[in-house]
C-alpha cells in the first residue's frame, strides 16, 4: 500500500522528508538509489541493514518489498527510535529494529538474510566475515565506503571471502543550490558502493 507521505512507486525519497537527529548521517537520495539498485531486490527480499542510522534504507526497501522483511541493526538506542519514527512516518510496517552492535548481535537476528547492506558498521572486516556465514548461495552484499581506508579494507575482505561478480562504483552528484544571488552546483559527498554475490 502506498505511503500517504510518499505515494509514488519509485524509490528516491527526498532527504528532507525524513525525520532527523543532529549528527546522525543519512544516505543522500542519489547515493541511496545507487545502493538500492545494487541490492537487486525482489518483493520478498529479507534484508539485513547493518548500521541503519536514520533508517532511509529500511523505509525505501520496506516500501518496495511488500512481502519482504527488513531487519535494521543499530547500536545506538536513541537512533533506533529515530528509525521507528521514520518507518511510522512512511507507514512502513515490515521492519524489525534491533538495538545491538554488529558483529556480536548478528547471531541473534530473527531471520537469515538474502541481501545485506552495510553502511558505516565498524569493524567492517569482522562484520563482513560474520555476515558471510549467514548469507545463502546467490545472496548479495552491498557495502559503502566514504574514504580510501574503508575502500581498501572492504575490497581486501571481498577478495578473502571470494565474493563473486564484484562491482564498484563511485557516486558523483552535484545539486543546484542558491548561494546569495547565485545558483551554483554543490557536490554531494562521493561514496564508493561495493557489491557482490555469494556463489558456492
Ligand atoms: C552512516 S550511518 C547510516 C545511515 C543510514 N544508511 C541512513 O541513510 O539512514 C551509520 C550508523 O551505523 C551505526 N553503527 C556503526 N557501527 C555499528 C555497529 N558495529 N553495529 C551497529 N550499528 C553501528 C551508527 O550508530 C550510525 O547510526
TrEMBL record:
The keyword Methyltransferase applies. InterPro entries: Cbl_synth_MTase_CbiT, Cobalamin_biosynth_MTase, SAM-dependent_MTases_sf. It comes from the Bacteria. Pathway: Cofactor biosynthesis; adenosylcobalamin biosynthesis. The keyword S-adenosyl-L-methionine applies. Keywords: Cobalamin biosynthesis, Methyltransferase, S-adenosyl-L-methionine, Transferase. This is Precorrin-6Y C5,15-methyltransferase subunit CbiT. It comes from Floridaenema fluviatile BLCC-F154.
Amino acid at each position: 500500500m502506498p505511503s500517504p507521505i510518499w505515494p509514488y512507486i519509485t524509490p528516491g525519497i527526498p532527504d528532507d522528508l525524513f525525520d532527523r537527529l543532529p549528527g546522525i548521517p543519512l544516505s543522500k537520495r542519489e547515493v541511496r538509489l545507487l545502493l538500492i539498485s545494487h541490492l537487486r531486490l525482489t518483493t520478498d527480499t529479507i534484508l539485513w541493514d547493518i548500521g541503519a542510522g536514520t533508517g532511509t534504507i529500511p523505509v525505501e526497501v520496506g516500501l518496495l518489498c511488500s512481502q519482504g522483511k527488513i531487519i535494521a541493526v543499530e547500536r545506538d538506542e536513541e537512533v533506533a527510535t529515530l528509525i521507528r519514527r521514520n518507518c511510522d512516518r512512511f507507514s512502513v510496517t515490515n521492519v524489525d529494529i534491533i538495538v545491538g552492535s554488529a558483529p556480536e548481535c548478528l547471531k541473534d537476528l530473527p531471520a537469515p538474510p538474502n541481501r545485506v547492506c552495510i553502511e558505516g558498521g565498524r569493524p567492517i572486516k569482522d562484520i563482513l566475515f560474520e555476515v558471510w556465514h549467514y548469507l545463502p548461495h546467490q545472496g548479495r552484499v552491498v557495502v559503502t565506503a566514504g574514504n580510501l581506508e574503508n575502500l581498501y579494507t572492504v575490497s581486501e575482505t571481498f577478495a578473502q571471502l571470494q565474493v563473486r561478480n564484484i562491482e564498484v562504483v563511485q557516486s558523483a552528484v552535484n545539486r543546484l543550490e542558491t548561494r546569495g544571488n547565485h545558483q551554483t552546483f554543490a557536490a554531494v559527498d562521493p561514496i564508493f558502493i561495493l557489491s557482490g554475490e555469494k556463489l558456492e
